[in-house]
Amino acid sequence: MIVINSKDKRIKIGLEIHLQLSTGKLFCKCPDINSTGIKGKFTRKLFPTENESGDVDVAALQEERKNVIYEYQVTDNSCLVEADEEPPHEINAEALETALSIAFSLNSEVLNAVSVMRKVVVDGSNTSGFQRTAVVSTGGYITINGKKVGLTTICIEEDSARRVESGNNYTAFSLDRLGIPLVEISTAPDIETFQEAVDVAREIGMRAMLTGNIRRDSDAIRQDVNFSMGYGRVEIKGISKLSLISEALIAEEKRQKYLAEAVGILVERGGFNGTVLIDYTEKIGKSESKIIQKGIASGNRIYIGKLENLGGILKAGDYRIGKEIADALKLFSIGGFIHSDELPGYGLTEDEVNNIKKFLKCEEKDAIILISIPESKKDLAQDAINKRIEKLSSLNFSETRAANEDGTSRFLRPISGSGRMYPETDIPTIKINEGTLNRLNLDSPKSFDQSLLSFTKEWDISRQEAEIILATGRKKEFIELSRLWEKPREVSRILLQFVPEMERKYKRKLDYNDLKRLTEKIATKNYGRISLEIAIEQCISGKNIETVLMSDDIRPLDRSELKSIVENLRKSGDVKKENIIAKVKNETPRPVDPKIVMELYQNT
Fold first, then answer.
1. How far apart are CA 48 and CA 130, in angstroms?
2. Pick from 337, 366, 397: which residue ends a domain?
3. Is 50 part of a structural domain of the chain?
4. Bridge pairing between strands 234-239 and 399-403
5. How distant is the alpha carbon of residue 131 from its chain centre?
């Protein structure tokens, strides 16, 4: 059993926290809001480039071998900059200042000049084949349970395009997310336990939230985990939830432990000397296996190979070398991989399996594989299988892996090196004047509790409301709306209670810009909170904002109109102090001021 808080001295953990900013895109004027439609499409094929020293990144070389055509969906919040048809514009000043403010908050040494670099990325997630990134500060620390956890760098960079579809040698991306500012906060490998990793990520996220410029979409905050237990550094990318950090670490520790045990068995047996895939299509063509028949019908060939000394450790108990091979093949859109630890099965009989073993001259400790692929992919598959097993056999598990939703991960690519970075020639060095640095340092939040205390006092709202507003990144919205509405407690109620309640009721989201516009227009007319809530509900229910603002439904009844209703109700009888407000509301869909109703009732 793996103990989560064992403080194994071999284990080293570091984090890379990525936070999207709600400031508009980084190098153009496009908004960061999600797109509502596709305006067009174009395709690209990407190639790796050399850095200043003439080196090519190993991860980029692997991506090139996939030979994938990438399709890009042009959205209404993208432009020629995202399409790499126009040079980048001047850097988004608000985004840069937000990154600097976060750096000051985390005790990091802020640079007074920022140089943008290009990071080679040819997996299709950027149309240009590179991502623009810049270091804004170095060093720093946060304190968790009395312990200092160091930081290495804080960067600001472009977020990648969003993958929407994948097929055989084809991947489609949306440009709606490409270019959104992303602050990357990297910690030193000071984290000792899996729970501590969660605590560090939470504290960094909470501190950044205090800027009020962190987006709240489902994928707006992502964590990468760097993990080592003596077999090289593994980077697990794209953990979207705090709760999955510890699960991912537990799964990775378990994976490496059992991989090391399986490799020990392999070495004791004599190791692995490579496999050669042999075309076995004609010999197995009469098999009743649906997988075999489907593969042949689609034009594939059926290849077999011997995996020397790997029998019983491809998939037995906690040993999963077979999954490692399958993950490596999936990167090249190769599936249909079957091995002898799963056989007989998949419609293959014991006699058919024994015939393959006999054909390959297998010993009891050997394994066999069957794979259904086009002939053109035979060499690629053979090379991927051999390289994956050789890599694992070396007990160097260092690589980049992608997080799965269940806490496990899958092989993505080799660890990138310095060969992926080179200077950005389209953007001059950005100098930051001393006055700006002093202002940002002075205004930056030094702790969540300190910010909570001052925020509660400044806006005269409850501590509980202030905590939710700050922790969920609504600070900027709350301040903007409170300045328009001038009643912070009502704004807090609308933001934290009424809007979420209506969104749940109608299963629709209200765009913040619409909420801001409703607040501003209704405040100008002095209509009051009830009118604003009616307008909000109508917008969330699906009505056009222009129609809502022009509708008489949001105009409160004036004193004379209310007086007429109260007098008519008195004449009809069956009204009293306890039910007069409800009775008046039943008479009209328009906003009613209860105070005026009670006053009129008592004086008529």
1. 9
2. 397
3. yes
4. parallel
5. 16
- Determine the 3-state secondary structure of 195 from DSSP: helix
251 within some domain: no
Is the pLDDT score of 567 beyond 90? no
The token duo for 435 is 């006055």
Please state the separation of Cα 293 from the chain's center in Å. 40
Confidence check: pLDDT of 5 > 70: no
Clarify whether residues 62 and 209 are in a common domain.
yes
Q: At what angle do helices 463-471 and 475-485 cross, to 10 degrees?
A: 120
Q: Is the Cβ–Cβ distance between 144 and 120 less than 8 Å?
A: no
Residues 400-414 pLDDT 10s: 999 999 999 999 988
Does residue 579 form part of some domain?
yes
Q: Mark whether 510 and 599 lie in a shared domain.
A: no
CA distance 482 to 492: 9
**Together in a domain, 168 and 37:** yes
pLDDT at 595 over 70: yes
**Could you say which of 397, 415, 432 is where a domain stops?**
397
306, β-bridge pairs: 368
Do residues 522 and 569 both lie within one domain? Answer: no
Tell whether 578 and 461 lie within a shared domain.
Answer: no
Length of the chain: 604
Amino acid at 35: S
The CA distance from 445 to 465, in Å, is: 18
pLDDT band at 603 (very low <50, low <70, confident <90, very high): confident
What is the domain count for the chain?
4
Are the CB atoms for 295 and 303 separated by under 8 Å?
no
Supply angle C-alpha 211, 217, 222, rounded to 5. 80
Which residues partner with 155 through β-bridges?
A: 135, 184
Question: Roughly how many angstroms between the first and final C-alpha of the chain, as a whole number?
Answer: 78
Based on the domain organization, do 568 and 502 belong to the same domain? Answer: no
Do 335 and 459 lie in a common domain?
Answer: no
3-state helix, strand, coil in the chain (%, to 5): 40, 20, 35
The alpha carbon of 154 is separated from its chain's Cα centroid by a whole number of angstroms, namely: 18
- On whether residue 250 sits in a domain, the answer given is no
Residues 144 and 168 occupy one common structural domain = yes
| For residue 344, cis peptide bond before it (omega within 30 degrees of 0) | yes
Q: In a 3-state reduction of DSSP, which class is residue 270?
A: coil
As given in the structure block, the two tokens for residue 48 are 């790796």
- Summarised one tens digit per residue, pLDDT across range 50-102 is 666 666 656 556 666 667 888 999 999 999 999 999 999 999 999 999 999 99
DSSP strand E in 429-582: where?
Answer: 430-431
Q: Which domain holds residue 504?
A: 446-554
d(CA 202, CA 204): 6
What pLDDT is stored for residue 597 in this prediction? 84
**The CATH number of the domain where 386 resides is what?**
3.30.1360.30
How far CA 503 is from CA of 450, 496, 546, in Å, comes to 32, 11, 19
